[in-house]
């Protein structure tokens, strides 16, 4: 029976230049591979060693990229190794099979959201009305499933984020602050539900996961074994559980370490 590895991407396996955390002397910095280009500019990286580890992992297990990114944002990424058969986008709102969103899965998700939480339009209207233009740079809706703001983090009122979280909680939504983005996501929209669906389809008898943000919490808890790096929202809050291994590594080297852990768990290293 195959092992299934569902891993978050941004700040877990791939890193922007600002998130690399290259704290070693320049001469000892790892060689980097660019895995995402946007508007003709390099955007995301992993180490060359991590690229080889990911290639090995793709041969040893069912690797499922698992991200809050929209389908369009995910498809900019050019990961090394075998092309994944499955990918989870929009925080579980889309299950891609050979690059195409599964319409039955998406219909199930949208029906669940309509039944269990306030509509996206209400949340978006609140964000537009309540957010301060002083620190908001962009308002975005992702795949008609959730909303997020791009902000100037140094100007952001952190108490406002806490107040937003309380407001959202009462409407069946959750709030996550990741770097320069504030996400408002319906509670039933989860990575874990999509991971379970892929496990059902593939017959996987072992599920492994990694992630760094609050939106990865359900994914980590649903897996048989999970890992989180030493940076990100989960590290900031001290989140852990018996099935989750806390790694001290931070930045792009954490991505390398996570892939080594995955390979060790599936017997590929």
Total beta strand runs: 15
End-to-end Cα distance: 18 Å
Helical/strand content category: alpha/beta
Q: What integer is the average pLDDT?
A: 96
Shape: globular
- Write the H/E string, N to C: EEEEHEHEEEHHEEHEEHEHEHEH
State Rg. 18 Å
Task: Report on the biggest sheet.
Answer: 5 strands, parallel
Tell me the helix content: 25-40%
Total number of helices: 9
Strand proportion, as a percent range, falls in 25-35%
Order of strands, main sheet, comes to 5-1-13-14-15
Low-confidence parts lasting 5 or more residues at pLDDT below 50? none
InterPro entries: HAD-like_sf (IPR036412), HAD_sf (IPR023214), TPP-like (IPR024197)
Organism: Streptomyces violaceus
GO molecular function, one term: hydrolase activity
Protein name: HAD family hydrolase
Q: How is this structure best described in words?
A:
Keywords: Hydrolase. GO terms for molecular function: hydrolase activity. This is HAD family hydrolase. The two termini are 18 Å apart. This protein has 269 residues and is an alpha/beta fold. It is built from nine helices and 15 strands. The strands form four sheets. Strands 5-1-13-14-15 form a five-stranded parallel beta sheet, with helices on both faces. The chain has a four-stranded antiparallel beta sheet with strand order 9-10-12-11.
């Amino acid at each position: 029976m195959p092992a299934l590895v569902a891993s978050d991407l941004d700040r877990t396996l791939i890193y922007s230049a600002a998130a690399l955390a290259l704290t070693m002397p320049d001469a000892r910095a790892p060689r980097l591979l660019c895995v995402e280009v946007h508007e003709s500019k390099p955007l995301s990286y992993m180490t060359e060693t991590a690229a080889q580890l990911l290639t090995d992992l793709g041969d040893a297990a069912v690797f499922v990229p698992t991200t809050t990114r929209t389908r369009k944002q995910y498809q900019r990424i050019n990961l090394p190794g075998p092309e994944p058969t499955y990918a989870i986008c929009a925080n579980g709102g889309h299950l891609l099979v050979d690059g195409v969103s599964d319409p039955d899965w998406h219909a199930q998700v949208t029906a669940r959201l309509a039944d269990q939480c306030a509509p996206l339009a209400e949340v978006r209207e609140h964000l537009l009305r309540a957010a301060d233009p002083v620190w908001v740079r962009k308002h975005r809706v992702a795949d008609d499933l959730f909303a997020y703001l791009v902000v100037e983090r140094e100007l952001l009122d952190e108490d406002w984020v806490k107040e937003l979280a309380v407001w959202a909680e009462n409407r069946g939504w959750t709030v996550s602050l990741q770097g320069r983005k504030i996400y408002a996501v319906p509670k039933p929209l989860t990575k874990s539900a999509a991971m379970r669906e892929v496990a059902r389809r593939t017959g996987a008898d072992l599920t492994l996961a990694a992630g760094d943000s609050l939106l990865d919490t359900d994914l980590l808890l649903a897996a048989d074994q999970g890992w989180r790096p030493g940076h990100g929202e989960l590290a900031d809050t001290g989140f852990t559980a018996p099935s989750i291994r806390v790694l001290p590594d931070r930045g792009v080297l954490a991505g390398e370490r996570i892939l080594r852990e995955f390979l060790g768990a599936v017997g590929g290293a």
